[in-house]
User: Which sequence fits this backbone?
């Protein structure tokens, strides 16, 4: 029996380099959660920029294009993720916006939100999210 030649996460960077790169901007006011999300997305091949407050996230989103904006739905200390997302027209590029929450997705997603991820988020769900972003990038790249 021959060994499998399917790339896996354990194959390291070589397999991931064959995938379209994804640039992700992460916003969460909990340092530990932010670090976990950063590590997971980087393991799946994304390049990440992290922010701990909406003002920094808006600055980063305006300064350079990102393929994905991952936002904690419930920010403490007066942070308002929906107020940030209402500024989506100011973002460089057109990132896919995913909200992470401990609550189930509402029947209708809030304006400016493309996806809702309920904690805990499985590795499979993270991979699906990045595959969706890559698919969108490939479609845009093939038409433009």
Assistant:
């Amino acid at each position: 029996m021959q060994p499998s030649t399917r790339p896996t996460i354990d194959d390291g960077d070589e397999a991931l380099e064959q995938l379209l790169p994804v640039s992700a901007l992460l916003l969460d006011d909990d340092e530990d959660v932010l670090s976990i999300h950063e590590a997971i997305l980087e393991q799946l091949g994304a390049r990440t920029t992290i922010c701990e407050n909406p003002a920094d996230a808006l600055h980063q989103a305006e300064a350079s294009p990102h393929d994905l904006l991952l936002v904690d739905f419930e920010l403490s200390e007066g942070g308002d993720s929906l107020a940030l997302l209402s500024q989506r027209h100011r973002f460089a590029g057109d990132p896919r916006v995913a909200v992470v929450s401990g609550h189930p997705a509402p029947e209708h997603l809030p304006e400016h939100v493309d996806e809702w991820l309920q904690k805990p988020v499985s590795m499979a769900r993270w991979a699906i999210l990045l595959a969706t972003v890559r698919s969108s990038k490939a479609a845009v790249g093939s038409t433009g």
Summary: The first helix runs from residue 13 to 17. The chain has one domain: 21-139. The chain is about 40% helix and 20% strand. The radius of gyration is 16 Å.
